[in-house]
Amino acid sequence: MPTELEELVGFIAHPNPQIRKVATENLVSYSTDQPSIFKTQELLPVKHLKFLIRDHPEIAEHALTILINLTADQSILEYVAMDDRFLGILLGNLADPAEQNANLLAMLLANMAKWDGLKSIATRKQDAPDSLKSDGLVLNQLLDLFVKGSDGTYNKHADFDYLAYVFADLSKHPEVRQFFVTKQEYDGVVPLNKIKVFTEHKSDVRRKGVASTIKNVAFDVPAHPAFLDEDQVNILPYLLLPITGNEEYDDEETMGMLPDLQLLPPDKQRDPDHNIVQTHVETLTLLTTTREGRDLMRSVNVYPIIRETHLHVNVEGVREACERLVQVLMADEADHGVEEIVDGDNEDERIVEV
């Protein structure tokens, strides 16, 4: 005899939408407390939940929330992420400007991006809605959704912040890193330039995901000249501003800094998330891999900013990252060596739960 809870799980596939709504609504909490109830009959309940993302918006909301929580389980994550047809439906719904559950779809996609096989999205194409003004490449569509979501101009129901975590995980793969530094034909923009502006933004999720994406792309050493070129990506101001507080520097130090850092307001605050600060410092260290990168950072007085960050952020990870960078910047080029940082940012090795 099935238990009452098992019977309730069975009702998520009921032909009556009211019964589906009650069942999914009541099962949300169990998706975190007792996820095993969804793993019966070779994950049949999960299969039913995937169908429900196209149901009435309220039912789809509950189904998506359950799926987001269930994909904390590796076996369920792979079952969901490996379903190419489901991925196509999710991506199509995500790009719909009237989709009420777009943020939840973005959160589920962020979890699916933990599966390495999702790197195939780098070459995936789908028709873009005319209102998005994007091209057929899915990655370009996701970037354009992310940009337009920042001010709510595309979908009034969504900010698309969680796409930042999608980018962070996908950028661990070389083919996706290459995408981020390649100018796109349809708009003539390097994708990294679309996200760098969000290193300072009110959304913690957006800032954190963007910081990790930039760091991961920075493992592509041949792209460093473009990273540092003022006429291409010009990444340094977007890494240094978030880690800069309201400290005062002497005139000589200030005049040697980048123009963006010379006239900061007295109430300027360093990013409050210490993990983000650490990620930016580690990215700067990656960019010292080449002699050109080291020389540039010395010439624009990066050292005083790192010195003050080390002094004012009393967090072990941040202080150690600052010390590694200072060792590189202050080293004699004759015996220079950059300490290796593990390939790929682990800060976003998280599964979203709601």
UniProtKB/TrEMBL annotation:
Gene3D superfamilies: Leucine-rich Repeat Variant
Residues annotated as domain Protein HGH1 N-terminal: 94-277
One of the Pfam families matching this protein, by short name: DUF384
Protein HGH1 C-terminal domain: residues covered: 283-336
Family: Belongs to the HGH1 family.
Identification of the protein by name: Protein HGH1 homolog
Organism for this UniProt entry: Staphylotrichum tortipilum
